[in-house]
Protein 1
Amino acid sequence: MTVTENGFVKYRWKVSTARNGYVTPTGSWSAKWLSRDHSSRKYDNAPMPYAVFFNGGYAVHATFDLKRLGRPASHGCVRLHPDNAAEFFSLARQAGLANTRVVITR
């Protein structure tokens, strides 16, 4: 994942996206809402800390399954190391939802 601010690369982080049988949507969205301590309603209350929601139930959020970062592992969300997710969450809160874009390409 590449985070840019004012057109300059600020961070590059390993992520996990959808594993086989699931899809991480591609496209461009503004952030819709933030949840510091979210739990999935769809997947057995799975923890989704520092969630930045961008398309329905899809979010960029922290994972504690660190060994799987860099490989497909999720139900469709974009998973980050907790430290990186906290930083992204903070940046989104500071910039505002309308100024936070999530762009996903293959």
Protein 2
Amino acid sequence: MATRLVGADLDFNSVARIINLPDGTDPQHPATVAQLSAVSEGLAWKDNVRTASTANVNTSSPGSTMDGVTLATNDRILLKDQTDASQNGIYIFNGASTALTRADDAADFDSLESAVVTVDEGTANEGSTWRQTEVNGTVGSDDLLWTSFGATVGQATETSAGKIELATQAEVNAGSDTERAVTPATLSGYTGFTRKYSTSIGDGSNTSYTVTHNLGSRDVTVAVFRNSGNYDEILVETRHDTTNTAVIVFAAAPSSNQFRVVVTG
């Protein structure tokens, strides 16, 4: 690696910063904030892995590539997406058709408690850092859960934890985005749902009933059916007076709760 000698002090004027530093691995390397935080948090930094999984891997026959990286014998790799989470961990690659073996520094649970490891290569995982969060377990039988750590949090997927953006109401209504999350509020406002309001009407004296459905539109369908017997639907005068109400008019006053009204839209 080419180097350049610096023979004078560098003054950043309390404004500029050195950015995108790799984690220090030599006593004379500068430490990143993530590494300093690890010291204060009692984290156990592991030697970097070459690459990391993006989906479940067959540990008995892992294949020759992972996250776009062609593996070589003795490569350290991180499995973090196993269907059986007890199989997660740091492994040594022994060949495409040969079983993986756990790395010596990650072979028991004590060595993996609060373990942190950085990924060197990969289409999805290059430069990312992962922390093992489970404690007091047994390797091979208890789950090992790796979560994205530090400033290099990756995008969340269906199989991996990570950062995610909240969808706008328009994006929720469009129903095509696969990367943004839906909140209860935007789910409630989703226009693709068929919404419904129902109630019983009839009191033995009135022939006109205002049904308040609060669906916010005149573009609704109103059905009236008997509330007993064979529950057949009947024809009545229906007016869509407002966006939140419908008026049902009978020729003769129905008996108490004789009919059921269902408004959909």
Protein 3
Amino acid sequence: MVNTNLDSELIQALFNHSSIGIIVVDEHGIINLINRFAVTQFGYDDAAQLKGHKFDMLIPQRLRARHEHHHAGYMQAPKSRPMGLGLDLFGVRKSGEEFPLEISLGNYVADGKRFVIAFVNDITARKNAEQAIIQLNAELERKVEERTESLRQTVAQLNEQIEENQQKDKELREALDKEKELGELKSRFVSVASHEFRTPLSTVLSSTYLLQKYQTTEDQPKRDKHIQRIISSVNLLTDILNDFLNVGRIEEGKIQVRYSITNVQKLIQDTISELATLRKSLQQIIYTHEGNVDFELDPNMFKHIIINLLSNAIKFSPENSEISIRTSIQDSTLHLSIKDKGIGIPPEDQEHLFERFFRAANAMNIQGTGLGLHIVARYAELMNGSIICKSEMEKGTEFVLTFSK
């Protein structure tokens, strides 16, 4: 038994009244001394229940083999070991309940024997607090994640709402722009119609008035002349109205392309014949074609393009001039060129040529609505085609169109 130094009343008092468990074991792991606090920690009533027994009775069964190994190793190279080394140690109470421990070790030699003194601290409360903190942190993290996810969803909903509002704003602006454009179109229609209708209507009225005066057979040539003037004026009014209607249908997306295999050469030749009466004195229209004559397009749209460009060439070219039309079909592509030797188009006006109601500065005094070339360009676009203009003042103008299958 250990007697050295423990005979002192002071040491005995410290040993017995310490607020930490103190256990002294010999080199064989037998408990020699144990203070009251340690006895209570392990759930025993008296130190006598533990003295003389192996220390591993205070260690869970599952850990005893490891403890024996550690004890043998420690006795071979004993050294002080403080608490708080981060080791998870467990003790077992008399009831069999396991609880976490923190142990610091020291050693000393008395009467030629080595003893190990263990300072044992029950850290159940601390472990519970740590676990509570871990659970609290986990709960906080979960709540933060939930809150973050909620905020993320809110932000996503806000972004979606913003995008939806932006889309609605865009649609509203587009609707307002279309409404404004429609208003401008109506205003331009009234302006252009009042101007363009005046001449043919005056012709109809004056010719109708004169027809009433020509009653005799001898007056038949004069009647025929005025009847033809009325017919021409009515046809002109029809063309003007058709231009306005076609623009409206294009803007509303109501124009449908109806493709069919078309003999381009024959269609153009027939159109030239139909417009023969529009030619000025000694004007010539020369048409040439290369390659296959058949091409898939909308014949009505294509004819409208030919009529518009050819009638413009006739209208803006002088007498005794030549208008050339060239077409070619090669590698699934149709090329069309209509070239005149007329007044030409000012360079500053050419970039606006295909805009609605636009008229070149040098064409203001010549009848026209400013819609024809706009319709031509839109028809070409609808048939997967393109159009460009080449023009020089007083030398003439050429329109080149390309269509691909």
